[in-house]
Amino acid sequence: MVMRCGDIDSRFADPSAMHKGAAAHRKIQKKQKEMQTGYEQEVSLRHEIEIDGITIILQGRADGIITDADGKITIDEIKSSTMPLELLTKLQGQHLAQGKCYAYMLLQTLENPPEAISVQLTYFQLESEETQRQTWEFADAELAGFFNELIEGYAVWLRLERDLKITRDESIELMRFPYDTYRKGQREIAVAVYHAIREREKLYVSAPTGIGKTLSTLFPSIKALGKGNADKLFYLTAKTVARVVAEDAVRQMAERGLRLKHITLRAKEKICQNSEKTVCNPDSCAYAKGHYDRINDAILDILENCDIIIPDVTVEYAKKHRVCPHEYALDASLYCDLVVGDYNHVFDPVVYLQRFFGGEAGSNGDHIFLIDEAHNLAERVRDMYSVSLDKRAFADIRKELKDKDTQSKDLKKTLRDIGAHYTSLRKEHEETKVYVAREQDRAFAELVEAFSFAAGQWLNAKKASGHSLHEDILNLYFETSRYLLISQEMYDETFYANITEITSRTAYITLFCLNPSSIIAGKLDMARASVIFSATLQPLPYYRDILGGGEGDRAISLPSPFDTRKLLVMAHAGISTKYVDRESSYAPIVSALNAAVSHKMGNYMCFFPSYEYMHKVHELFCQEFPDVATMMQTGSMTEQEREGFLARFDADNKETLVGFVVLGGVFSEGIDLKGDRLIGSIIVSVGIPKISLRQDLIRGYYDQENGLGYDYAYTFPGMNKVLQAAGRVIRTEQDAGIVMLIDSRYDTAKYRGIMPPHWDNVRVVRNLVGVETTAGSWYNYLEGGFDG
Fold first, then answer.
1. Nearest 5°: CA angle at 175, between 173 and 176?
2. pLDDT tens digits, residue range 173-207?
3. pLDDT for 235-281, tens place per residue?
4. How far, CA to CA in Å, does 701 sit from each of 434, 522, 546?
5. 527 with 367: CB under 8 angstroms?
6. Most buried among 304, 483, 526, 692, using CB within 10 Å?
């Protein structure tokens, strides 16, 4: 922390360097032992010191300690690397400081310490086996002065951490809830959250829009932080808009006196300020060059001047100090009490926050996880822990790789072997095109491991050459690394499937996670307590099951805080939207849609299960009702186009507007069209995912587990999309509007049984007259006032 300096350089490093380095250490130590009888290797040292009431325990292992015949002592610090020694020696200041620490620590253990002790740095180049040594002698007083200065430099950070905590806890003690009264359901959530944290439990919460879930979970968590029941809060969500809501909640508490360090993390590619995005080396990025020379001053600056560190603030200070904003935010997060980020910061097997959850850190923290929009979590984690390799990726590189050097020949051999394996699978499964097994294809995994090793050697040899295939091989190396990680450390036949798929152009081998619940449970175990919540965590037992919970974990479901008379929920059960009936459904849907939107001028969205379905109905609607303004979502809208689409939903529109959008798409959740910006959602179908091999595998898995395979694979995920789309209508206490569900299945006991409690007054109609009468009567009733 105190001695770090130099550049960020993430150019490829040999993945086997650590193992080679360990072997090199042993080789050097063995040779030293043979040459010098007074050589001890791997000597453990420990020293304890107190500064300002803060106890510091420093411990480590010296590579070697040499005591010659005259009693002269030398600390031997060995450093090995694949980089040229002239580059390695640029870090000599840090390496020498480590040796000097060991020298000082050793002196404290000796009854009759010498007046001086030496430190030797041994540098070893792993490829050429070139060795360089340099030795310095230090008087004991000189080492004491160095050590005390080093510790004093580190004490700056310890005092900062202590003082920030004192300020934080004092402010939390005095902080009151940001509003004079709780909304309906808010206090119940807050009490349940505090209890879960105190008792080290998991809590699952389904709470409709309007209760104020963010504040209801953050406030008691921060109170628990002030009572010493946690070290750090992690607020995790799937979408940027939810992170902004969390930031606003912290600002509201800050207005009531809260002094807490909060940082919002953003994905590397989104916060990177380099013109060549995420190219992290000193030759390509001014922020990477000298980053470590400036980073400590940058961290102190932002912590001394900012309590709420959002990405824009991180970038502002990163530019001021010319440091990498991504690494800067991660370093600053160590001193923050609340970290707001994406699910992958905890759950992803590769990019999780290793400084908090890697190695011993994963079991040491008294963390609290607050997981918002949790209905998205299972599918996100399933994607994180599934991986697919395409034959074409290997074949394309093999075709283009013309080099004759040793590394290229070795790499090409692994590519040939993998290609031959894919070809044999194609012949074996030519008729069925698909083969699914619970056992892994071990032979393929071994070939992928051989490729990964050869690719690593090639990348290390070619990293400075600017080779035309470098990016392609590097990307495939990362893909195969993820495959091997899942294959070797996570694949379990009880909840994974190995899928082989043959197409006319290529072949795929996929490790597919059928059930992510045990993975999620393992990650939740890293926290003292976890609160998993969403507006649409329905049915609650299903979500508790797939989100790492058990029957012993508490789950609460709350009613809507809004007046249910302001929302008309109508189910048109006279139209079947099943795939076999779709063509005959277009005209009835158009008529029902017009009946729903024609009674009151305003803005509406109509949700469809696919783009094709949406296009067909939109085309017919425009033919039948050309005077009604419409907009239609396209498949590849940019962020600017999405913002423009939503901007058309203006409360002051002088004509009715109907937006045709896809159910489960970007406009189904995470958008907040308050008041008259949206007064109705018409939802076509029950939202079930498209029938596919993977969904059917999930179905088969849960049929064996609990007999609810179809519901787990299709019904429940589909209904969640419906609930999210319906939730766009009522956003505040002042809002009023309609939700019309179009599908005959909504009038079955199964679907009525999984509707949320605030839909108990759903009105079922079976024909166009029913739609016109119900919608018209409701609008007249609403306009006349509830007492009319």
1. 125
2. 999 999 988 888 999 999 999 999 999 999 999 99
3. 999 988 889 999 999 999 999 999 999 999 999 999 999 887 778 88
4. 17, 20, 13
5. yes
6. 483
Question: Please, are residues 699 and 642 in contact by the beta-carbon 8 Å criterion?
Answer: no
Which tokens sit at 539? Answer: 């049915």
- pLDDT for the residue numbered 359: 66
| Residue 105 vs residues 68, 110, 115: alpha-carbon distances, Å | 19, 9, 14
Distance from C-alpha of 761 to C-alpha of 153, rounded to nearest angstrom = 66
Q: Name every residue whose Cβ is closer than 8 Å to that of residue 230 and which is 6 or more positions away in sequence.
A: 197, 221, 224, 366, 367, 368, 528, 529
Contacts of 312 (CB under 8 A, 6+ apart): none
Determine the length of the chain. Answer: 788
Nearest CA-CA partner of 228 in 528, 525, 554: 528
Identify the CA nearest to 774 among candidates 766, 763, 783: 763
Element (H, E) at 136: strand 131-139
What the block records as the tokens of 168 is: 């934080």
β-bridge partners, 340 = 235, 264
Name residues of the chain where pLDDT drops below 70. Answer: 12-17, 359-364, 464, 784-788
What pLDDT score was predicted for residue 15?
Answer: 63
Inter-helix orientation angle 517-524/377-384, to 10° = 100
Burial category of 313 from C-beta neighbours within 10 Å (exposed 0-12, middle 13-18, buried 19 and up): middle
What pLDDT does 787 receive? 45
Q: Specify whether the CB–CB gap between 394 and 476 falls below 8 A.
A: yes
Q: CA 485 to CA 476: how far, in whole Å?
A: 14
> In Å, how far are 347, 382, 544, 547, 640 from 517, measured between CA atoms?
12, 9, 9, 5, 36
Nearest CA-CA partner of 358 in 370, 350, 369, 366? 350
200, 229 contact by CB (below 8 A): no
**Beta-sheet strands, E only, within 222-337:** 232-237, 262-264, 308-309
DSSP-based three-state secondary structure for 562: coil
Of 227, 311, 297, nearest to 268 (Cα)? 311
Task: Confirm if 662 and 654 have CB atoms less than 8 A apart.
Answer: no
* CA–CA distances in Å: residue 331 to residues 296, 326, 327, 716: 9, 9, 6, 40
Q: Cα–Cα distance between 423 and 589 in angstroms, integer?
A: 48
- Is residue 544 within 8 A of residue 530, CB to CB? The reply is no
Q: If you search the block for the tokens 């310490």, which residue do you land on?
A: 113
Q: Is the dihedral of CA 35, 39, 40, 45 positive or negative?
A: negative
Which spans in 429-462 are helix H?
442-462
Q: Based on DSSP, count helices (H) and strands (E) in the chain, helices before strands.
A: 29, 24
Given a contact cutoff of 8 angstroms between Cβ atoms, the answer to whether 204 and 532 are in contact is: yes
CB count, 10 Å around CB of 282?
16
Does the reported pTM lie above 0.85? Answer: yes
What is the Cα–Cα distance from 539 to 756, expressed in whole angstroms?
8
- What interhelical angle do 186-198 and 213-226 show, nearest 10? 40
Residue the block writes with tokens 């490729």: 451
User: β-strands 567-572, 554-557: how paired?
Assistant: unpaired
CA 465 to chain centre: 34
DSSP string, 645-702: HHHT--TT-SS-EEEEEETTSTTTSS----GGG--EEEEES--PPPP-HHHHHHHHHH
What's the angle, vertex CA 94, arms to CA 91 and CA 99, rounded to 5? 125
Secondary structure of the chain: what % helix, strand, coil (to 5)?
A: 50, 20, 30
What pLDDT does residue 672 have?
A: 87
Q: Please say whether the beta carbons of 597 and 715 come within 8 A.
A: no
What single DSSP character describes residue 708?
-
The DSSP line for 327-352 is HHHHHHHTT-SEEEEETHHHH-TTTS
